[in-house]
């Protein structure tokens, strides 16, 4: 016997920054991601599945903890005597946890980049993946800012010219997709949440922005294009014809697109209808 959508009880938030998407919003997210993958198809970026955890040692090589220590969510585990205490019914919140040396991803590209350490990519390589990402924010706000969310990325590694082409085509794709969906966007340099805003990378970003965001009508950043220069290639030994590879990526925040679509069309149902119209027109 099938369960109808109308028979489901109301879905409540399990905690701050945690949401369960009801069937209509879940379908909206799935259909939107199908549209996002159109960019990967245009750019011939094969799909991969990234890892659920990232080694702290690898992230340290990428200056993650210098720049974003406040966003990291560490993975820990119970072990030893704690297991007996839990089995005896004691409060899990009062038990000691032990570090694993791993973090939950805060962006999809980190796992992809770490997996390519030491690789030679010739004149260019692209991949795409969608991952569940996690960020320790100072506040949470509906679908605009979550503990955990889905991020689709299309990543390029290769030459400086290849990065420029990748990001230019990505920008055109995002603006065209948003227009088709009726979502008005603003395009501007990002203001990344660096822990130390007086640090060298934050200063460099201010002088030469390497990340641009696409903002919905209420200011929510729903997508971005990111130019990494040769930073990841140099740190991870990824080469393009023997030189440190340049890289760039395009990111779509799936839940934020759901938010923007609902904001635009007034309801999840109306937004889903529009997304499906665009999907069918692009087949």
- The share of residues in extended strands comes to 15-25%
Q: Which overall shape is indicated by the principal axes computed on the Cα atoms?
A: globular
> Whole-number radius of gyration?
20 Å
Quickly count the domains: 1
Straight-line distance between termini: 33 Å
Largest sheet: 6 strands, antiparallel
What key attributes describe this structure?
single chain, 6-stranded antiparallel beta sheet, 10 helices, 23% strand, aa-tRNA-synth_II, Aminoacyl-transfer RNA synthetases class-II family profile domain-containing protein, aa-tRNA-synth_II/BPL/LPL
Write a concise synopsis of the structure shown.
InterPro entries: aa-tRNA-synth_II, aa-tRNA-synth_II/BPL/LPL. The chain is an alpha+beta fold and 283 residues long.
């Amino acid at each position: 016997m099938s369960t109808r959508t109308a028979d489901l009880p109301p879905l409540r938030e399990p905690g701050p920054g945690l949401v369960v998407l009801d069937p209509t919003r879940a379908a909206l997210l799935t259909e939107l991601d199908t549209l996002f993958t159109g960019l990967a198809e245009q750019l011939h970026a094969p799909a991969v599945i990234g890892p659920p955890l990232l080694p702290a040692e690898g992230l340290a090589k990428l200056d993650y903890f210098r720049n974003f220590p406040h966003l990291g969510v560490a993975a820990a585990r119970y072990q030893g005597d704690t297991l007996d205490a839990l089995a005896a019914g004691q409060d899990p919140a009062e038990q000691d946890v032990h570090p694993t040396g791993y973090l939950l991803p805060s962006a999809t590209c980190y796992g992809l980049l770490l997996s390519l350490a030491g690789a030679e990519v010739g004149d260019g390589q692209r991949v795409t993946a969608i991952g569940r990402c996690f960020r320790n924010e100072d506040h949470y706000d509906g679908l605009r800012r979550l503990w955990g969310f889905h991020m689709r990325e299309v990543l390029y590694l290769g030459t400086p010219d290849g990065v420029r082409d990748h990001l230019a085509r990505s920008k055109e794709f995002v603006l065209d997709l948003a227009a088709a969906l009726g979502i008005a966007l603003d395009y501007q340099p990002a203001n990344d949440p660096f822990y130390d805003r007086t640090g060298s990378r934050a200063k460099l970003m201010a002088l030469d922005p390497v990340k641009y965001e696409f903002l919905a009508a209420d200011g929510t950043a729903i997508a971005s294009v990111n130019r990494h220069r040769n930073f990841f290639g140099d740190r991870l030994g990824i080469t393009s014809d023997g030189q440190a590879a340049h890289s760039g990526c395009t990111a779509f925040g799936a839940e934020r697109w759901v938010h923007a679509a609902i904001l635009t069309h007034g309801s999840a149902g109306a937004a889903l209808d529009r997304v499906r119209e665009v999907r069918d027109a692009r087949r």
